[in-house]
Specification:
The complex is a heterodimer. Chain A is mostly helical. In chain A, 79% of the residues lie in helices and 0% in strands. Classes of the chains: A mainly alpha, B alpha/beta.
Chain lengths: 193, 120
């Protein structure tokens, strides 16, 4: 009964998170984001997931959660490095904007929630947030950042990141299923070979 | 005169050796009996996929994985992880020769899967 309550609660939280990111954070207004603003949003969104991963490594003892968090930290750090290198090469200075600030506000709120959880409740909260966060980021990159980017190299980097984000989402969903005790094919995340 | 005759004999002997050598490599059916020399086959890693995901090779050919993706990957035997490459950074490659067919995956991103199959 407690498990059901917990799942219901976190499903609601994850949904709220998706709605928050999709309606408020990313699509601030009808005005297009500039390339320096897109660079800022991209770096911030990646850094936030690195920070969530670090919280997971600090708080979780679950092997699957820790492995997933390590991959998130590594991959998103690599993407930040590439985004910064591209911005430097293009002489683009990432510009903080309303979307960046909104993302950081969302991070504060989520971090507070994660910090208040322990054990299995933390693992569920972390992985539920990862599923919701990746869905929101995928939606934003595909429908806002790529269409708004004017520099072709920036557009190309954002396009190249999409398969990585989709893979992260699939990994998060598989880890979520394992945490919830559902069967997933060993090692392979359940997809057909 | 004697010198010319010797040259002619040497030519005939050489031609005979070449003919015999060629015959030794050919079966009665006319097909080449020699095992093909091991070759290198390539799998590219890009867009979070092994391309091609299924690769047919001759026994003991070497497969080279080239990471053209934006993050590091590895190549690990499935399901027992009996062998694994180290982390292959973007722009780097790793290779291994295969005597048997195998399934493999990226242990960092388990959604990425591939197969090496040996031609009979």
């Amino acid at each position: 009964m407690n498990t059901l309550k917990s799942i219901t609660k976190w499903t609601g939280a994850a949904l709220a998170c998706v709605l928050f990111f999709s309606s408020t954070t990313w699509a601030q207004s009808s005005s297009k984001l500039t390339d320096p603003e897109i660079a800022s949003v991209a770096v911030t969104a990646n850094q936030i997931d690195v920070n969530y991963g670090k919280i997971a490594l600090r708080k979780s003892k679950n092997k699957e959660i820790r492995k997933f968090a390590e991959t998130m930290i590594k991959d998103h750090t690599d993407i930040i490095k590439q985004a910064v290198a591209l911005a430097t090469r293009l002489h683009v200075t990432p510009k903080t904007n309303a979307t960046t600030k909104s993302l950081l506000d969302g991070e504060k709120s989520t971090t507070k929630t994660l910090d208040s959880k322990r054990g299995k409740a933390f693992d569920e909260a972390y992985i539920d947030n990862e599923v919701a966060y990746h869905k929101a980021v995928i939606n934003a990159v595909q429908n806002v950042l790529i269409p708004d980017a004017t520099n072709q190299d920036l557009k190309d980097l954002l396009t190249k990141v999409m398969p990585l984000l989709n893979s992260h989402l699939e990994m998060a969903e598989n880890t979520q299923a394992e945490i919830q005790g559902k069967k997933v094919s060993a090692n392979t995340g359940g997809s057909s070979w | 005169m004697k010198n010319r005759k010797n040259k002619w004999i040497s030519g005939v002997v050489l031609a005979g050796i070449i003919t015999l050598a060629a015959a030794g490599c050919t079966s009665p059916g006319g097909q080449n009996n020699q095992a093909a020399a091991p070759e290198k086959d390539t799998v590219y890693i890009a867009g979070m996929k092994f391309k091609p995901a299924e690769l047919w090779i001759n026994q003991w050919d070497t497969v080279v994985w080239i990471n053209n993706d934006i993050v590091a990957h590895d190549v690990t035997q499935f399901p027992d992880k009996t062998w694994s490459s180290d982390s292959i950074q973007p722009g780097q490659s790793w290779e291994k020769a295969f005597g048997d067919s195998v399934d493999y995956f990226c242990s960092i991103h388990p959604t990425m899967k591939g197969k090496i199959m040996i031609r009979q």
